[in-house]
Amino acid sequence: MIIIMRKNRFNFMLTLMLLALGSVFFACSTDNSDDLNDAKFSNNNLSSKVVTQTACDITGNSVITTGNAVVSASSSSTFIYTNSTGTVGSIVWTLTGNAIFSGTTSQTITTTGNTVTVDFSSNFTGGTLTAFGSGGDALTCETELNISKVVGDSGNCSCPNPVIRCTLAVSGGHPYWRLELDNLETGDTYVWSQLHAPFMSGTNSTYVIVNPDGPMYSGFTVYCEVSRTCPNGTVNKRKAYYTNYYGGTTTTGTTGFIGSCSGGVGNELD
Fold first, then answer.
1. 199: which DSSP letter?
2. d(CA 67, CA 82)
3. Distances from the Cα of 19 to the Cαs of 105, 119, 120, 215, 233, in angstroms?
4. How far apart are CA 41 and CA 47, in angstroms?
5. Is the Cβ–Cβ distance between 182 and 163 less than 8 Å?
6. Residue 124's domain is classified under what CATH number?
7. Interatomic CA distance for residues 124 and 14, integer angstroms
8. How far apart are CA 78 and CA 146, in angstroms?
9. Cβ atoms within 10 A of the Cβ of 155, count?
10. What is the residue range of 197's domain?
11. Which residue, 122, 149, 176, sits at the end of a domain?
């Protein structure tokens, strides 16, 4: 009887020990599971922060602080789009103010490269440049740059670069040639003149019709002096010429300038 009671007591103690060990194991497993969940949550938070902190920017030599640039009127400046998440497939650039993208007449272009050059007009006073990048292996991101005119800029402007172009050449019978003036800026004025090519129409337009004097292969020249008034009142002038010969074609003429630009400061851009 004593032996049986001791055996039962031993079994009871063993059962208590096993229960205690099971509780400790369960508690440790629960704590470890919580730690893993906390770590996973932290990683999710970290990933979220990387996304929310992603930044695109516009940089360049004229950028003085993030989001701000300073330029002079009648100048050009190059800008670069950056994206911290990778390389975008395309960028839509948009300008405001008296400026255009170099090589175009537009204030909106789309590029696959990340660099653009902007031409600022003689009457530029301020504007913005916006870049919207998308596609590629980067996240979509848009950024805007405020562009101001240099404080104290006197408003000098570039010299005109007019081009006289022949669009029609008729010799013999009732000869007449049509010449057009290209590469003007808003506000430019012009004065036509000629040598051995009397005007058949008025000279107050950007084109003229002339009647070259014969005989065959005798030469003639048409001139046009273009004037540009700068914001500071300075007037820059340049005279273009077109020369050809009676009996020639639209492709046989030559063009150029008579002398150099005359006027005020700003001619260093020539």
1. B
2. 13
3. 85, 83, 84, 124, 99
4. 10
5. yes
6. 2.60.40
7. 93
8. 14
9. 19
10. 163-263
11. 149
Q: With contact defined as beta carbons under 8 Å apart, do 224 and 195 qualify?
A: no
User: How many domains does the structure of the chain reveal?
Assistant: 2
The domain boundary residue, chosen from 83, 118, 149: 149
Show pLDDT as tens, one digit a residue, over the chain (270 residues). Answer: 444 444 455 555 555 555 555 544 444 444 444 443 443 333 333 333 333 345 899 999 899 888 999 888 888 999 999 999 999 999 999 999 999 999 999 999 999 999 999 999 988 889 999 999 999 999 999 999 999 987 655 566 778 889 999 999 988 777 889 999 998 888 899 999 999 999 998 789 999 999 987 777 889 999 999 999 887 778 889 999 999 998 889 998 899 999 888 764 433 333
Measuring CA to CA, which residue among 91, 144, 134, 139 is closest to residue 114?
91
CA angle (101 as vertex; 205, 226 as ends), nearest 5: 25
Same domain, 187 and 117: no
DSSP string across 31-48: HHHHHHHHHHHHHHHHHH
Distance separating alpha carbons of residues 207 and 94, to the nearest angstrom: 33
Cβ(211)–Cβ(176) below 8 Å: yes
Provide the residue count of the chain: 270
Query: Which residues lie below 8 Å from residue 105, measured CB to CB, with a gap of 6+?
Result: none
On whether residue 14 sits in a domain, the answer given is: no
CA 214, CA 220: separation in Å to the nearest integer?
Answer: 9
